[in-house]
Amino acid sequence: MALISLEEAKTYLRVDADDEDALIGVLLSSAEKLCADVARLSEEQWSAVNGTDDKEQLISLRAVLRVAILYTLGYLYEHREQADHHALTLTLRNLLFSVREGIV
User: Fold this and answer.
1) Nearest to 77 by CA among 2, 17, 9, 4
2) Distance separating alpha carbons of residues 9 and 15, to the nearest angstrom
3) pLDDT at 70
4) Where are the transmembrane segments (predicted)?
5) For the segment 6-35, what is each residue's pLDDT rounded down to a tens digit?
6) Quick one: how far is CA 10 from the chain centroid?
7) Handedness of CA 63, 87, 33, 98 (dihedral sign)
8) Do residues 74 and 12 make contact, with C-beta atoms less than 8 angstroms apart?
9) What is the pLDDT of residues 79-95, one digit of tens each?
10) What is the DSSP string of 22-56?
11) What residue segments make up the domains of the chain, in order of their start?
């Protein structure tokens, strides 16, 4: 189970056509990887988050990660020519603070 499907990503980006599906898919994968890295999630933790278990802690973690991934996806899509990855990473650190510190 992916946290965000291609259709959800396209809806978030307000893209109706299928012309950019490949690009959006690559950006979505990059956004997921970047968020997992910034949140300091191990492969095992990411697998749990990306799974189907419905423990309360995982549900909260998924909600936070979904917001961060969608934000990252939007940023990468809009700034695909000149993205400021340092600024993006700083914003993600703030968004994912609770995950990084083990609060969620």
Assistant:
1) 9
2) 9
3) 98
4) none
5) 999 999 999 999 999 999 999 999 999 999
6) 14
7) negative
8) yes
9) 988 989 999 999 999 99
10) HHHHHHHHHHHHHHHHHTT--HHHHHHHTS----H
11) 6-100
Residue pointed to by tokens 């899509």:
77
Q: Which tokens belong to 60?
A: 């909260």
Q: pLDDT tens across 39-58, in order?
A: 999 999 888 888 888 888 88
Q: What share of the chain is helix, strand, coil (3-state, %, to 5)?
A: 70, 0, 30
Alpha-carbon distance of 22 to 41, in angstroms, equals 26
Question: Amino acid identity, residue 2?
Answer: A
End-to-end CA distance of the chain: 20
Predicted structure pTM score: 0.89
19-25 own/partner pairs: CB under 8 Å, 24+ apart: 23/77, 23/80, 24/73, 24/77
